[in-house]
Design brief:
This protein is an alpha+beta fold and 386 residues long. The protein has 13 helices and 16 strands. Helix 1 packs antiparallel against helix 13 and helix 2 crosses helix 7. The longest helix is centred in the N-terminal third of the chain and has 21 residues.
């Protein structure tokens, strides 16, 4: 009976995927969902490479951009659970060089809540330098903050990954890079095959080709801080993130390459209170705090077009009624959107964990334009969770 219900749910989601592809809203899509500890949706459709005709299958990999931030934050929480890092401690306790130009008062929590004051990437960054972890972290440590640490919401569009990743590396007794830490401490214990922050050569043929269908914003309308946080030469576009060196680098905030099956299993860890199939990664008490909204949650963020961002205290976004978090719906859900409208989320109330990966990047201006939201609704409809 359960198998029949799962097949019916997959059929509902598959139909929604095919409708969006037929309407021209999507090219290639994967969807996976866990309900409790069971994989209940695992379906896909469309093309991974429109030019070559390669179809999406369950093993196709996709750039998920800022969905990666949730994985990076989780790695930091593993260190906190082990007593190796304190959220209220200054970053300089673990990374002494970071204290330049008045940043010595920055706490780990300021980083997690995007109040560290350093949204800008370093001057002179190039794709090649972005791939050099030591160069990026050295230059970020030397940045002058644009606001007093802790005083203002300034979304760390790209710098979040290096800040969190370097904190994980420096507090790890083995000094592992973030990508290796994620593989050894999260992915492998949970049996997750494809949660890559820096891909190995062997998986590259499985990566989907991106199509940038986002509406261009004239430069004069881009907030200066937005441009400083993601300058054109390292912007989240195919020309940069399909480069072989960028795919292989640990661009820890925006460079993740996952498939939906692996990403949904990661979110299932959080939906189930920090454990999955008998493997505990995080304590339930810690996970239970993650959907606490950050202080001053209605504050407008000048990096992100003066829009308030629904962020919690732990580095995850929270669900809500508007794009890009509408797919998760519940304000208690942990989620993270990625550039181009990829998303993953974990709802602690229903224990639903979902990942939607795709290769047609788009920036919907409302729910009516949001094909990923319609696919998310199909997941809930198919599982009778509406």
């Amino acid at each position: 009976m359960q198998a029949a219900a799962d097949r019916a749910a997959n059929a509902v989601v598959k139909e929604a995927i095919e409708q969006e592809i037929a309407a021209g809203n999507e090219i290639g899509v994967q969807v996976a969902a866990y309900l409790g500890e069971r994989l209940v949706v695992d379906t896909w459709g469309g093309l991974a490479d429109p030019a070559g005709g390669r179809a999406v299958d369950g093993d196709t990999l996709f750039n998920v951009f800022s969905v990666t931030k949730a994985v990076a934050a989780t790695a930091l929480h593993v260190q906190a659970d082990r007593g190796l890092i304190d959220y209220d401690a200054p970053v300089v306790r673990y990374w002494p060089e970071y204290g330049a130009h008045g940043k010595e008062r920055t706490t780990v929590r300021h980083v997690l809540t995007h109040r560290a004051g350093v949204p800008q990437v370093p001057e002179g960054v190039t794709p090649e330098k972005m791939c050099d972890w030591a160069w990026m972290t050295r230059q970020i440590a030397a940045l002058r903050p644009l606001a007093e640490p802790g005083s203002k919401a300034l979304y760390l569009s790209m710098t979040f990954g290096w800040l969190v990743g370097e904190l994980v590396r420096r507090t790890d007794p083995q000094q592992r890079s973030l990508g290796r830490f994620v593989q050894e401490e999260i992915a492998r214990p949970l049996g997750i095959a494809d949660l890559w922050i820096g891909i190995p050569d062997a998986v590259e043929p499985r990566v989907a080709r991106l199509t940038n269908a986002s509406d261009p914003v004239p430069p004069e309308y881009l907030p200066p801080l937005y441009t400083a946080s993601m300058p054109p030469q390292v912007d989240l576009v195919p020309e940069v993130f399909e480069r072989p060196d960028v795919r292989r680098a640990e661009v820890a905030g925006v460079g993740g390459i996952f498939n939906a099956r692996s990403c949904a299993r990661f979110w299932a860890l959080l939906a189930n209170g920090g454990a999955l199939d008998g493997v505990r990664i995080l304590s339930p008490g810690r996970v239970g705090t993650f959907n606490t909204p950050r202080p001053n949650s209605e504050e407008k963020d000048p990096v992100m077009f003066d829009i308030p961002l629904p962020l919690g205290i732990a580095g995850y976004w929270l669900g809500g009624p508007y794009p890009p978090v509408c797919s998760a719906r519940s304000p208690r859900a942990l989620c993270h959107p990625g550039a181009g409208n990829s998303i993953g989320w974990a709802d602690p109330d229903t224990r639903l964990a979902v990942s939607i990966c795709h290769n047609r990047m788009r920036n919907p201006r409302g729910i009516e334009e949001d094909s990923v939201f319609r696919i998310a609704e199909a997941v809930r409809r198919g599982l009778r969770l509406q």
